[in-house]
UniProtKB/TrEMBL annotation:
GO terms for molecular function: acyltransferase activity, transferring groups other than amino-acyl groups. Signal peptide: none annotated. Residues 17-160 form the N-acetyltransferase domain. This is N-acetyltransferase. Pfam families: Acetyltransf_1 (PF00583). Keywords: Acyltransferase, Transferase. PANTHER family: AMINOALKYLPHOSPHONATE N-ACETYLTRANSFERASE-RELATED, AMINOALKYLPHOSPHONATE N-ACETYLTRANSFERASE-RELATED-RELATED.
């Protein structure tokens, strides 16, 4: 199994397809948990179209044996020493094969290159796999750093 992680334009066909997979999964998980249904298709299309990722400083794309497999995004914050990790996602059939660790590690290195000494992120309670990954990689749960209505857990890690 070979993993490669490279920067990717947020509007490339591979990035757009992975964003669609990511958003569909996290949205459906939320609606199934809270309302017993999947996301309304019109709402899904509206949100995917509205959240293009143009606000990211960098999008990393993971490929497994050359095939697009996942993403991790970095967003600058008002504090130039801090970046935010977002859009960490692997296609379900490739989870448990080390790709998420490669993605997050590459994102941390890219953040250091941008001058960051700290990475922050948020996630939800139902995304237990993500919370376990972040804890395993040295992220510590912190006080909220945003008011995102879907954020339920906030993490931070020193990058030095």
């Amino acid at each position: 199994m070979t993993w490669t992680i490279t920067p990717e334009p947020v509007d490339s066909p591979d990035a757009v397809a992975l964003w669609r997979s990511y958003y569909t999964e996290v949205s459906d998980r939320w609606y199934l948990l809270h309302q017993g249904r999947t996301t309304d298709p019109a709402e899904l299309e509206r949100e995917i179209t509205a959240n293009t990722g143009k606000d990211l400083s960098l999008l990393l794309l993971a490929r497994h044996n050359g095939t697009p497999a996942g993403t991790a995004g970095i967003r600058r914050t008002p504090d130039p020493t801090t970046t935010e990790l977002t859009r960490v996602f692997l296609l379900p059939h490739l989870r448990g094969k080390g790709g998420a660790t490669h993605l997050v590690t590459a994102a941390e290195q890219a953040a250091r290159t941008l001058g960051a000494t700290r990475m922050i992120l948020d996630t939800r309670s139902d995304l237990v796999e993500a919370r376990a990954l972040y804890a395993r990689l040295g992220y510590e749960e912190t006080q909220p750093h945003n008011t995102d209505p879907y954020a339920e857990h906030w993490f931070s890690k020193r990058l030095t």
